[in-house]
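Structure ticket #2291
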Amino acid sequence: MPAHASRVSLNRRTLLHAGAGMAGILATGRAPALAQTQPKKLVFAHINAVPESAAVAFDWMAKEVNAQSKGALDMQFFGKTLIPQELEIMNAVKSGSVAMGSPAGAAATVFPEMGALLVPYLVKDYASAYAMLNGRIGDKISQQIQDNYKLKVMCYFDYGFRHFWTGKKPIVEPKDLRGMKIRVQQAKIFGDTINGLGGNAVPMAYGEVVTAAKQGVIDGGDLPIVNMKALKIYEVSKYASMTYHNYGPTNAVINLEVWNGLTPDQQKLILDLSRAAQEKIREATESVDNFAKAKSELEPLGMTVVEAKVDEFRQVAQQKIWPAYKAQYGALWDEIEGFKA
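Resolution: structure written out below.
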């Protein structure tokens, strides 16, 4: 057979073989290994499950990231099921074993840089808080967190202002706290708040709270209204006392190395959607944080909602708690205290 004939035969065989291979790819929907691009997996761990306000928003965010990235990203939200404690979640994000997470109510424990915002009655209202955290103060704290922990802040959100929940009596004025064992987050500022206002602070991870309340280890604790309902605290408490004593800012962060591995478009998508999630959480939190709405949410569940003498609590905080923190935070304190939205 002439040389050119063998070349034609070889080429025909090669084409037929390649065609058969392509037909197989089309039939199975799988490309050869080199041509496949696996989606980048982004696990987000959170202390609470849906219907807790932040869990609802970040579960929504994960679905939106996956849809809008068109298969390039696979964000998976795990609420309560992956890691049981806030500090463990943040250690996992710092190490890179999970990509994203939130310290939830333990933000000031993990990030002391945020502590000034939690000093009782220093942040005046929601409008001021949102403007600070979405502006220069938030940018400054974000840079400190990135430098100190190699974490990128995706957004700040909050659990609103905290109010007391108790089983035996309401907390209407500071003297009502005397002798009361009140569960607090593990950051120093929360303990200083309760002790300064007249109670006995009991630092405790949230996972232990319900059992401790049932056993009488604690007489109560504090939560924003939105989470008194979502976390079913009405099962172990009778009273919600609206004291507005600590503002509860926190954030959602991503491991910096993981962040730097994303394309600019993917980074923009995540930041845009985290800001949208922030808005959802803020709406859920703020919309129920007033006496009338709190009554309509909690009293059908067996709780009694009372208005506390907020001015009396504020005066005690300013006298007993503010001086040490004012000295500690210096310029940041002055910026927060004088801030007008």
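Closing remark: The longest strand covers residues 151-161.
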